[in-house]
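Second opinion, please. Please look over this fold, written as tokens:

===
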Amino acid sequence: MTSSSPGEGGGERLPRPPAFGYPAQTWKEISHLLVNLPMGIFGFVYALTWLAVGVGMAVTIAGLPVLAVGLLGSRGFARSERQRARALLSVRVDEPSRMPGRPGEGFFGWLWRSLRDPVGWRATLYAAIRMPWGILTFAVTLTSLFIAWPVLPWIARALTNVDRLMVRGLLSPSDELERRITELESDRGTVVDTAAADLRRIERDLHDGAQARLVALAMDLGLAKEKLDEDPQTAARMVDEAHGEIKLALQELRDLARGIHPAILTDRGLGPALSALAARCTVPVTVTTDLPQRPAPAIEGIAYFTVSELLQNISKHSHARTASVTLARSGSRLLIRVRDDGRGGASPAGGSGLAGLAERLGSVDGRFVVDSPPGGPTSVDAELPWRDRDGGSHTGGAPRRPAAARRTP
């Protein structure tokens, strides 16, 4: 007979029931093995269904969107499996990154990108093999609960170690290198297309602008030479007009050279170059730079032309009264913020100039975010990787100096 002592309120303290001899982690492993069966059935049925429908309809093209959506669903199933493994098996697997998109890529760009998603296909393979494994683990675990109870912890650990290998092998972001290679290939195409477009623009500007003006100037000087003896006054007038044409041609060449790479950017850096840009803007612009040193010339050029295009948009479309440009370095990133108090509604969608900027920055591992609600204000944040002028890149840097503010009326 078990003795008892009086408890609070005159009651009796009852004996505690015997505790199971397994640690908490063993019970988590047993739970995971038992849940393998329903999760395995669900994953197998899901993968088999969308694969059968998508492949069957692929001959009519309509099956390709089914395959793309199915891969997205496999990503969701894999996410839930990673969470289950984290909670019950103490397996820490990082979440794979989202599929990188390109602004203005359209439906077919999204479709092709989705069908090439290695994370989705590995998650589909994981779902397909889980049902037979789930049947095995469920049967072995359930049988051991009633027949082989003393050795169940070792059985559970052995089976869940296989689960851990599956999760790490098929659901971890181990193929991110492949994704990065795909991104770089896409970005290289963007850079090549952008460079080709810039070369065509320069060729067109030279042909239609300075070249045409110089050809006309040569013809005018030829006529003036013919009239020099018989009509000096007319010849002098024509030479005077040619002198004016020379000034216009030189100005066009200067503008074209500034569009390629402005001399002030090369000689003095981003602060003075952006102040010169702000002076040409139709809206008063405040330029603030907080850079401990100059970045690499390529990064300077991208930052300059990004701000240049944003200020042109402000001049043409924003109806703003004031604007501001802020540049700062944060670790290994160059941060750019352009704000205006205009009417808002700017969006990189639809193949606009903002979409082109986002694509260009993405091609160099940059970032581009537009916040422009209707009615304003508009804020555009851009990031570029910081690279030193000697070619290095690091998260440290020289001590930060106080911000220098310049206001251009």
Notes: The chain is about 60% helix and 10% strand. The domain at 186-260 is CATH 1.20.5 (Single alpha-helices involved in coiled-coils or other helix-helix interfaces). The radius of gyration is 34 Å.
